[in-house]
Amino acid sequence: MQVVDRTPSSIRTPARTARISAHLAQRVQSEFTTRWDTLWGGRSLLHGLVAGPDAVRLNGNDYLNLTGHPDIVRAQTSAIKCDGEFVIQSSVFLLETHPARALEKSLAHWVGKEDGLICQSGYSANLGLLQAIADPQTPVYLDSLAHTSLWEGARRAGAPSHPFRHNDPQHLERLIARHGRGVVVVDSVYSTTGAVCPLEALVDVAERHGCMILVDESHSLGTHGPAGAGLCVALGLSDRVHFITASLAKAFAGRAGFMTVPAEIRSYVLSTSYPNMFSSCLLPHEIAALAATLEVIQRSDAARASLINHTRRLRARLSELGYPIQQGTEQIIALEAGTEPATMVLRDRLEERGVFGAVFCAPATSRNRTMVRLTLHAGLAGAELDHVEAVAAEIAPLVKPWAWPIARRLRGGGASDEDHA
User: Cβ contacts of residue 284 below 8 Å, gap of 6+?
Assistant: First the structure.
């Protein structure tokens, strides 16, 4: 009997595929395959075990534990059911009556700014904004740990990029004196270490030298400040900071990015920022969910308090056990083993015992600062924190955190800040 293959031709595995160029194959070999085979031992550094139902997941960014919140789900499903006449188009075409505009203004007013733009991601927000406000005649001064999207934005603008030492206002001031006024770019809370930016001192430096300043609040919006409005609001700096950006995939637990812009240049940014011009707008159910999330976040003081308490507790215990985590203070905790092989061992020891973090390696960090990043959230139960602490104590003699390169640097009085991820 003849067996007939009824698989649709469009999804059958092709018998042959077009071969990549020899040059690309060589690049893959030198830039990745060798790393995979040697440093990673033939398996992925990023993908370890599958987390079971009893695992403690510290590898997400939903800081306030909002995923599945009934008010957000209700708003999203209602929009899906009711709004069948929307047009998928670039956000540059959206009129003032579009729901996205109400959300943009609500977010902007929340953080003390005049107006703003919603876009596809925090990466797009940073890249697109810097592309619009900088150019080859505008020096951009970036904290050495600033997010990669900020570095890419400066590169896309063709702007001269000058890194300053992490959280070092004095070094920034010397660079500006040498290269002239431009744009200062920082994160409010740094995504790899959980370190807080000394915003007041940096704003003072920027103002003295006539610079604009951009603050990426991805890891403080929702978690810091009154009603979660962020670090700029908490410090009373919103009227002195020129631009605030954020990923809405952190405390908002959604898929979008946001930037504030003065109303007078909103149309200019819209017509200059390539990520906004050449990406489709968010869908109505996404806008509805984000608008509902904003309302939930504003009344989530109890969740913010829980997050602070969890952070203080776990940081204190890890420090007692000898883990060198002094480079940060917030809900992001970096277990910086240093090398990729050492980080794989750390990841495996944690996951074997049901604790899952996220591995950060080059290009998210420099090659000698690979880490397992633990991100805490408000919904953690006491028993889960107990388990994480017990696991950290059990594996400490196996992974020897007191011997990691970062521990030696901290004992020596400082840490390298060569990352720009």
Answer: 79, 80, 83, 86, 99
The shares of helix, strand and coil residues in the chain, as percent rounded to the nearest 5, are 45, 15, 45
- For 259, the enclosing helix (H) or strand (E) is strand 257-261
User: Tens digits of per-residue pLDDT, 94-105?
Assistant: 878 889 999 999
Is 241 in contact with 213 (CB distance < 8 Å)? yes
Q: Quick check: 114 and 238 in contact, CB under 8 A?
A: no
pTM above 0.85, yes or no: yes
377 forms beta bridges with: none
Decide if pLDDT at 420 tops 50: no
Q: Is the peptide bond before 363 cis (omega within 30 degrees of 0)?
A: yes
Look at residue 394 and give its three-state secondary structure: helix
> Tens digit of pLDDT for each residue in 133-192?
999 999 999 999 999 999 999 999 999 999 999 999 999 999 999 999 999 999 999 999
C-alpha–C-alpha distance, residues 242 and 163, integer Å: 20
Cα–Cα distance, 266 to 259 (Å, whole number): 10
